[in-house]
Amino acid sequence: MSNLDTRPARAECGGREDVAARPVRELLEPRSVPLGESTVVRRLLPNLGRRMVGAWCFVDHYGPDDIADEPGMQVPPHPHIGLQTVSWLHEGEVLHRDSLGSLQTVRPRELGLMTSGRAIAHSEESPREHARFLHGAQLWVALPDAHRHTDPAFEHHAALPVVEGGGAGVRHPGFSATVILGELDGAASPGRTYSPLVGADISLAAGTDVRLPVEPDFEYAVLTMSGLSEVDEVPLESGSMLYLGCGRRELRMRADRDSELLLLGGEPFEEKLIMWWNFIGRSTEDIQQAREDWTAGRRFGTVEGYAGPPLPAPTLPATPLKPRGRTR
């Protein structure tokens, strides 16, 4: 998915010095951002107060939207460098096309994972014949410096491992977690990762109270996709995100009614990054070159089959893209 902001903010992300080395409870408020013709998303990362959670550096939550009489998601071809995109749906379908020639419909609880590496372009759209509701999340993972020029790739995994316990292999009625990326409670996703992290889609039935084992060296955040839950004793409504810091070995989750959550975590990202528009680089020159290449039709390839022109790159700010750290 693209950042369609025509005046994207510049942000330097990464570095451990701003990571809470202890458990915290920091509620992140979303901001509404239009995406394409008929979709409005709630942007939770980057946030005014926090830029990253592990290598996770961008989180949009959208829906549930009634698109029965609408075109739904329509994101024209656009470029990426230095990151992975994760498409995750609870309702609806998204048709992915990219400059590698990939053509894939991603459905609920299926992983669409695109690695941009040195350069890729893609589009995302609701199919012409689509379900009534669209509900999901789009996430970006920053690539570490050693892998940011890797070959671009696209993976689709229709079957993902499911955890049904609260630790030590014990099954817990009312709890299940689909492992999107990384590992959770002994189960590993087939999606390729380049840094220690985890992403999991968690379902809590009404009345569930569970303690989920987590890594004390990871920092975590939880996004409520639907329902009303309580995480680490903090009530979370749909669309809200709670940053939890590091230092936990277990995380308590409970729900008085059926709820669905996304758990995101990872080792705090060591490197400083610049994120501007759809690019992640290490310097102003990285971003300038990527923009020039996209505008000139170089490096990113062509997305075939999308009925419309590619997105033009916004104008770069006049001032250099300076470091700003993980938090403001």
How would you describe this structure to a colleague?
By secondary structure, the chain is mostly beta strands. The protein has a single domain, classed as Jelly Rolls (Sandwich), CATH 2.60.120.10. Helix content is 4%, strand content 46%. It contains one helix and 26 strands. Strands 2, 14, 15, 16, 17, 19, 22 and 24 form an eight-stranded antiparallel sheet that branches.
Summarize the structure.
This protein has one helix at residues 284-296; strands spanning 11-13, 23-28, 31-35, 39-45, 56-66, 74-80, 83-91, 94-98, 103-106, 111-115, 120-125, 133-142, 153-157, 162-163, 175-184, 187-188, 197-204, 209-213, 219-226, 228-231, 234-237, 241-245, 250-255, 259-266, 273-276, 279-281. The chain has 328 residues and is mainly β. It starts with 10 loop residues before the first strand and ends in a 32-residue tail after the last helix.
